[in-house]
Amino acid sequence: MNEEKPADATNEVTKEIAKEIITNQPQKEFSSTLKVKADPADLPDDDRKKRVKALAGAIAHGMRQFGEVHLRCFGDHAIAKAAKASTIASSYLAAHGYDLYLRPYYIKTQMDSKDRTGLCFLCVSSQSGKQEQPPDSDHTY
Questions:
Q1: Claim: this prediction has a pTM higher than 0.85
Q2: Cα 22 from Cα 7, distance rounded (Å)
Q3: Could you give the maximum distance between any two Cα atoms of the chain, in Å?
Q4: CA dist., res. 60 & res. 76, Å (int)
Q5: Which of 26, 73, 122, 123 might form a disulfide with 78, Cβ 3.0–4.6 angstroms?
C-alpha cells in the first residue's frame, strides 16, 4: 500500500531540496559599475534602441540597489550610448521622485597591452519631492 506523507513532511523535503539547489549554484555578484560598450555597426535601429533602454533599466536598478552607479565607457559610441541611457534612466527614477545627477571623470586602464583613457560617469540621485501627488478632493473643476 502507498503510504502518503503528511503535507508538512513533503514541504520540508521540498524546502531542503530547494536549499541544496540554491546553495550549490554559483552566486551571481552584482556591482555598481556598468561597463558600456558600443553596439556593432550593422545592428538595426530597433535593436539599438532596445539595448539603450536595457542599459537605462540597469542604471535605474543599480541606483535603487546601490544608491550610485559608475558607467565605464571607452570610445565615443559607448559614451553616447551611456548619455542616452542615463537620460532615459532619469525619467524612470523621476517617476519615483528622484533626480539623477551625473559627474564625469577620466579613467585610465590597460587594454591589449595599450594604455587607454576612457570616461566614467558617476550617477547619483537625490529625493526631489516632485513625486506625483493624488489630486485634492477639495478642488472643484
A1: no
A2: 22
A3: 74
A4: 22
A5: 73
